[in-house]
Amino acid sequence: MSENAVPSQTLTEYCNSLDYYNVNFDVYNRVSQRINRFSDWIDKSLPKLADSMEISLPATGTLNVLSVGAGNGTIDSRILPHLRDKVHPNVRAIFLEPDLHTFQQCQDLVGKESPRLQGIEFDWRQQTFQEYRSTAKEEDKFHFICCFNSIYYTGDMGSSLRYLYDKLHSGGILLITLVDGKSGGGQFWQFLNTSLGQEKDFFTSFDLEEACRKQNIMISEVQPIGIYVNVSCCFDPPQELTEDGRYLLDTITRSVNFAQTAAAELRKDVLRFLRSDTCSSITADGQVILDGSNSAYIIRRP
């Protein structure tokens, strides 16, 4: 980074404003088709994953599921039927989601999808992960725990990982998805951590693997989820950015109004690296395509 770049504290983190965060991610999801890529992966991988679960439950038993950061419910409402159909017909799912608007969207979606979600009981918790930890009973255990792109917001990764692993029943699975450290998006976040001069919540798969090593938790399997984002609109001058360009740039830098508030040298360095072949590919017609691929980590408790 250039010596004239401003220190990181002058940039406001967008996750401090849930409303702004939601607007940002709506744009990112639309441009990247991220939810479609996740859904494709779930429909391909979840049946095999559910089949592989070594859990023995009586007919009157219940498969217990914890969703950390359920969001608007699109992902988890797709995962749960696979578990019901392949593992056990009775499922109880605790949904954690702190944002009221998103929480209500999730409840509305589950209501609309109720015919497809027969046999699944929902326990709604409008809580952060930290709030849940402080109120959960020690004896509560789960057969399946899902952290679909939510491990970023659980606090200390090592502590969160240990807690979630310890909450698994024997034979249970912890599923965590996050940005692949080898992808362009992962490399970009590592660049930001260095450029901004302090650790932020730019976690990637590298951080998860390191936390697993330190906690002596074995990773059973890693599967790729390819996600590619056209970020060409991020490179216009700040005063000429479209709404999509502004929101996309804020999403990938995890800040509020990065184009207008970052020092010129910092903005120049960030955009140069985003455009580099470390992060992106350039199409024949000059479009800049960021490799924002994710990795799905499958952790089993013996």
Give an overview of the whole structure:
It contains eleven helices and ten strands. The N terminus is likely disordered. The longest helix has 18 residues. It has a seven-stranded mixed sheet with strand order 3-2-1-4-5-10-6. A three-stranded antiparallel sheet has the order 7-9-8. Helix 1 packs across helix 9 and helix 2 runs parallel beside helix 3. With 302 residues, it is of the alpha/beta class.
Sum up the structure in keywords.
disordered N terminus; 41% helix; 302 residues; single chain; three-stranded antiparallel sheet; globular; alpha/beta
Total E-strand runs: 10
Give the overall pLDDT as a whole number.
92
Strand order of the largest sheet: 3-2-1-4-5-10-6
Largest sheet: 7 strands, mixed
Given as residue ranges, the uncertain stretches (5+ residues, pLDDT < 50) are 1-9
SSE blueprint and pairings:
Layout lengths: L17 H15 L1 H18 L11 E6 L7 H11 L4 E6 L3 H13 L7 E6 L3 H7 L6 E7 L8 H10 L1 E12 L4 H13 L8 H11 L5 E5 L2 E3 L12 H11 L4 H4 L2 H12 L4 E3 L5 E4 L2 E7 L2
Parallel strand pairs: 1-2, 1-4, 2-3, 4-5
Antiparallel strand pairs: 5-10, 6-10, 7-9, 8-9
InterPro entries: SAM-dependent_MTases_sf (IPR029063)
Protein name: Histamine N-methyltransferase
Pfam family, one: Methyltransf_23
